[in-house]
Design goal:
The chain starts with 5 loop residues before the first helix and ends with a helix. It has 23 helices and 13 strands. Helix content is 52%, strand content 9%.
Length: 694
């Protein structure tokens, strides 16, 4: 048993100061106590099997591994989490690894996630009966192969072809150009045996657009690439190096006719292409379902990634003491970083954003998963809304999480920059989500394009999506040149309904302005030119709608929690109001930062009042800051941070890990100083040169 250090005592005291039980909040985050307990047991088993239970021992990931060793460490971890899921019948590591990374960071992750999901969504019942047991029992390992060297989420631009040969009854998969090379798919380079491949379906000289095919890419006997397939790893990335993001080049690869996933379309033996009766008229929407599922997971992953960075930084801020040089006297004691408002303002604001992402993710799940259960019935009435909402939430969540994680790293000073803090890896991992499944600036535009279509339907008395009817009723008042004025009740300025009205007003005003500008200028030029001309207003409108939805979701979640666990209502209400107020007075959007204030809805006095209110909330929340981060329930091993372990023993652990680094062990003199290329040889050469000059 380690002797309690001062830092451990500081963190223990901060934890004891909480006004609520963090375990109860963990039950809310993960839905119920049964799931929390099951998760904890799974993490305990996996971490024990991986040898990660001693948090004073240097994690294997920091032992100077080269590319091959990092990959094999990924395989080692993947084996344990997959084995645990199969042995104990759970799915805790289906979407996220034992480190809360997306499972596409694992060599086996895409098998259970997007490979399986594509077959689940796109295959016939007969195909599912064949493929799904092979996947679930890990008899094969699959990849999701869509992105090409020249095209990403723009699936209509995909160049890979699958041409039906009527004589042999096979498809011929080919990469006709260099840019048709499949590039980036997780697990493709080294790990997978099969892949679902997005390719243009060609029959009888006709292009039927993108379809999905199951393709065997490696032999199950010797694991060599199948003839006609060139495979490879794309090398090191900023993060996710425990897997092999790869490339594939197809050269006239022949695959069976039943390789086409045929839930919605089929090719008859004579090459006739036909839609199945159950298919909707807009087949393309059904074929893109896996990307929608991926975004659903990415939103949640971004929230947890930001939460990990904030957990590390919060714990470190509680135990790291510092003075104020410009005011301190020699005998002035140092105080923890968390006592400085510049630190707790940034931390609590980011914590409110992390909770906002997680609650918005839950709200999206409540829309998406009931719809998904009816997938393939041909009922696409909700799909446009769900797709567009996913784009806005994905763009907002990953932008905020990426920036917030790096801000958390900077809050730890120099120690946050060292790899052993865990923060550089968290930052790099979260940063990837901003480009996964679509660039965020494209995502904002997709959301606004959908909203424009809803405006067009509404103004022409055509049906609008039911989820947007109330919003459109508010929006119609803003479509004229004279937008309505909003006068918030000064006495109720901090009521949740008033704060939400400010977000709704901003969203309606910006969306109506963007719509008027684009509509007006598209009459004089093309729609594309008008769109590009007013791009920044369009982006601002998408951003504002997303934040309106997110605040509304946060407020609804708080009300639901109040009904089931009243002890959590006050801290969550404060956190929700902090999110709203800091978004107003300190907007993170760089392309339209004054959108809350430019029309005079809020006076300068009200903004000053809001800043004072923020200070009150910070003071009230400060005793709960450790509990708010403990509730995310991260294990020490999942954080992989010398600064962020739950016991607060920062300095002893940082030095212990530092001493265990391979560079500090062995014959340092022999490795780096001796020999003709060593430091010693260079210094001796300079010494001899100096003597010769004398």
């Amino acid at each position: 048993m380690a002797i309690q250090t001062k830092q451990m005592a500081l963190l223990a005291h901060a934890r004891e100061s909480a006004t609520f039980d963090s375990n109860k909040l963990a039950n809310v985050i993960y839905d119920n106590a049964e799931i929390v307990n099951s998760r904890r047991a799974a993490f305990q088993r996996v971490e024990a099997a991986l040898g990660l239970t001693d948090n004073m021992k240097l994690p294997h990931l920091y032992k100077g591994l080269d590319r091959d060793q990092i990959y094999m460490e990924g395989v080692r971890r993947a084996r344990e989490i997959v084995s645990d899921m199969i042995a104990h019948g759970h799915e805790h590591f289906k979407s996220f690894t034992e480190r809360y990374h997306l499972t596409n960071s694992s060599p086996f992750g895409m098998n259970f996630l997007m490979f399986r999901k594509t077959i689940e969504l796109q295959a016939t019942e007969e195909q599912k009966l064949y493929w799904l047991p092979l996947i679930d029992q890990m008899k094969i390992n699959g990849a999701y192969v869509q992105t090409e060297l020249g095209h990403g989420t723009f699936v209509r631009g995909i160049e890979t072809t699958a041409t039906y040969d009527e004589i042999s009854g096979e498809f011929i998969v080919d990469s006709p150009t260099l840019t048709a090379t499949k590039y980036w798919p997780g697990g493709l380079g080294i790990s997978c045996t099969h892949a679902v491949v997005a390719a243009r379906l060609l029959t009888k000289g006709q292009d039927h657009g993108m379809h999905w095919f199951v393709v065997k890419v490696r032999s199950l006997e010797d694991y060599a690439p199948i003839q006609g397939v060139e495979l490879g790893d794309i090398g090191m990335k900023m993060a996710y190096n425990g897997t092999c993001n790869g490339y594939a080049r197809f050269n006239q690869l022949r695959i069976p006719r039943d390789s086409l996933l045929g839930a919605y379309a089929e090719v008859l033996p004579d090459g006739t292409y036909q839609l199945r009766q159950s298919s909707a008229t807009d087949l393309s929407k059904l074929l893109y379902g896996t990307m929608l599922d991926g975004r659903c997971i990415i939103i949640k992953c971004a929230g947890f990634g930001l939460a990990q960075a904030l957990t590390i930084t919060t714990r470190y801020s509680v135990v790291r003491e510092q003075g104020i040089p410009m005011f301190a006297h020699a005998d002035t004691p140092e105080v923890p970083l968390i006592a400085f408002q510049s630190q707790n303002y940034r931390l609590l604001t980011l914590i409110s954003q992390a909770y906002a992402i997680l609650f918005a993710s839950k709200a999206f799940d409540n829309v998406y998963y009931p719809y998904f259960s009816k997938w393939g019935t041909g009922r696409l009435n909700q799909l446009s809304y769900i797709h567009s909402l996913s784009t806005g939430l994905k763009a907002w969540a990953t932008t905020v999480a990426s920036a917030g994680a790096d801000e958390a790293r900077r809050m730890c000073g120099g120690h946050g920059y060292v790899a052993l803090s865990g923060l550089p890896d968290v930052v790099a991992t979260v940063s990837g989500t901003a480009t996964f499944e679509g660039d965020n600036y494209v995502m904002w535009q997709q959301l606004v394009r959908y909203l424009f279509k809803q405006i067009q339907a509404f103004t022409s008395t055509n049906p609008v999506d039911p989820e947007l009817r109330e919003y459109m009723e508010d929006l119609k008042l803003y479509l004229s040149e004279n937008a309505p004025e909003l006068t918030p009740d000064a006495d109720r300025l901090y009521d949740s309904s008033v704060l939400l009205s400010l977000f709704r007003h901003r969203s309606c005003r910006l969306l109506a302005m963007a719509y008027r500008l684009v509509t007006r200028d598209s009459k004089e030029s093309s729609l594309a030119e008008a769109w590009n001309k007013h791009m920044m207003v369009i982006l601002a409108a998408g951003h504002a709608y997303a934040e309106y939805f997110i605040l509304r979701s946060f407020q609804i979640s708080v009300r639901e929690v109040e009904a089931t666990e009243p002890s959590l209502c006050l801290p969550l209400s404060r956190l929700c109001n902090l999110f709203a107020l800091t978004t107003i007075v300190s907007p993170v959007s760089s392309f339209y930062a004054v959108s809350f204030t430019e029309d005079g809805v809020l006076s300068s006095n009200q903004l000053m009042s809001m800043r004072a209110k923020i200070n009150e909330i910070l003071e009230a929340l400060l005793p709960d800051i450790v509990a708010l981060t403990d509730a995310w329930d991260f294990t020490d091993a999942s954080l992989c941070s010398a600064l962020g372990c739950k016991d607060g023993n920062v300095y002893e652990r940082l030095m212990s890990w530092t001493r265990q680094l391979p560079v500090n062990n062995g014959d340092v003199v022999g490795k780096f100083w001796e020999g003709k290329e060593g430091i010693g040889a260079f210094l001796k050469k300079q010494k001899q040169r100096h003597r010769s000059l004398l």
